[in-house]
Amino acid sequence: MSAPPASSHGIIPYQQPHYRTGRSAASRLPEKVLERIFSYVCPHSLDRSYRSAEEAATEAGCMLCDMRDLARCRVVCKTWCTVAEQLLYTSIRLDSVHYCGLEDELQKRRNRGSFLKKKHEPPMEVPEMRMRLLYRTFQENERIAFTVQFFKMPYMTRETCRADLARLVSLTPELKYCDVPEGLFSDDSSCAGLKAILYARCPELRKMTWNTGCEKNFVDLWAQPPWRNLEVVILSSLHVENADLVRVLNSLPALHDLTLKSLPWISDAVFDATPNPFGIFPALSKLSIEDISSISLDGLKVYLQRPIIAASLTELTLISTSIPASSISELLAAAPSLESLTFNTTISRILPAPEPPRLKSRTLRTLRYELTPDAATKSLSSPTPSYYSHLAISLLSGGLPSLTTLYVRDPTFSERLAGHHSTLTHPLTIHTKSQDHLDWNNQLLKAVEWGNEDLLAPPTPGFVAQERPRSRGGEPPAWVKGHGRSGSVSSFSSVGLAPPSPGFAKKERRGSRQDIWR
Question: Which residue stretches belong to region Disordered (predicted)?
């Protein structure tokens, strides 16, 4: 670019600077692109699961700081405000503390005296203050209140701030999932107000649990169900008959995930396919049966024989039932669409002779095969190795070609596969642990070429694999995968979040000058 012409006196004349007008390039980005970018700023804003705050938490940074950064993106321009606000308030997570070095500084500020604070006034709890500020936000902006669909908070917060929680949910009619006190599931009188508000103001709830003490309310649901769009139902320790259970389940057309736990009055007759005035057991995609000895293999096979069930059931969980471990091959044959199977039981004898058919399933991807020896059985050797040998033979023979994840309670199971011929064409992640350990150890096996043969061997140094214990054997939440900050599921106590680990205090401190609920 040529220089401006000089005057006769050699002085360059002053020129008015050019200011760019119009919309910036950042504001012209498509909303889908902005949403993708903001999901890296605050990964947990994509949490759309029906799991509690303890189950959905990760160790990937400080979630309160991430939410604060997303709130700052909201004030940049109108385009950013629309996208960031949708992410910020669709799935709200209200934590008690910052899981970074900022918590120490904030605690010092809270303990600092103020002339506005009375001398003997007890300090207000931080979660309670955040809930009240959030309630004020909903009162002032009804559009934001209608955006909220998921609301999660720590255990102690939802147990102690029941009145504040009731006021919050009364302003969110589109709520699909909310962490609520345990007393709500058993008709505790202290939760009567909150339950009445959920009945009247939250018709879009997708998950609900009924425990001991609420049999009457559960049986009466078929007459006028308050939540017709329930997708996930958990029934624990209820004394209900087969007919009442089927009648209530048929009144929920969107139900696809059902957990039956410790139901003493339920039997195989609940799966009877004969038409009756109460209906038949509904078709599900996920079924979990725990601690129910009255349901046998024959009753479950009657349910699986229906064509619609065989095509829809993808996840099956059997824990502490009367179904023997030697009959898993029959279950896999009756459920051709099964993708995940969890089988947990105790074994008192070795695998009976003749040996049962090998496990075969072309769709099974995840198998939790957890067998523990019966403590009442007094024998010199454990009966579980015979079952794990049968499982290893089934894997090596190609009976489970789609299997990618396997959980076994045998620390030497990987050695049963290493060095043997196999038709395995993809890596297999094996989670193993002994009977005395709580954490799972991961090992990735893959097929390698050795001469002209295919052998199973541990991963080579150049292969992406890790040997690390993982708490609870859980996978990272789906909303974390592929968003830059993957983390394993944390172990939390039953009364709330664990204290921040020392590693978080070493991170860069991010200050906050805004006294908002975040």
Answer: 460-518
d(CA 46, CA 13): 56
Q: Is the peptide bond before 354 cis (omega within 30 degrees of 0)?
A: yes
Mean pLDDT taken over the chain: 79
Helix (H) or strand (E) holding 108: helix 102-111
Strand 286-290 relative to strand 469-470, pairing = unpaired
- Secondary structure of residue 193 in the 3-state scheme: helix
Give φ, ψ of 324 to 5 degrees: -75, 155
Phi, psi of 233 (to 5 degrees): -130, 135
Distances (CA, A) of 234 to 46, 246, 259: 24, 14, 5
Please name which of 373, 363, 452 lies closest in space to residue 410, comparing C-alpha atoms: 373
Neighbours of 516 (CB within 10 A): 12
d(CA 371, CA 376): 15
- The domains of the chain are located at 25-107+122-205
pLDDT of the residue at 337: 93
Region label for 279, one of left (φ > 0), alpha (ψ between -120 and 50) or beta (otherwise): left
b/e per residue 163-181 (b: at least 16 CB within 10 A): ebbbbbbbbbeebbbbbbb
| AA identity, residue 259 | T
d(Cα 391, Cα 410) in Å, to the nearest integer? 12
pLDDT reported for residue 81: 83
CA distance 486 to 254: 31
Closest to 340 in 3D by CA, of 407, 260, 281, 426:
407
Which 3 state secondary structure label does DSSP give 249? helix
Q: Are 196 and 170 in contact (CB under 8 A)?
A: no
Lay out the sheet containing 177-178: strands in order across.
91-93, 150-152, 177-178
In whole angstroms, what is the distance from residue 127 CA to residue 134 CA? 10
Residue 461 has pLDDT above 90, yes or no: no
Sign of torsion over alpha carbons 207, 210, 214, 219: positive
**pTM over the 0.90 mark:** no
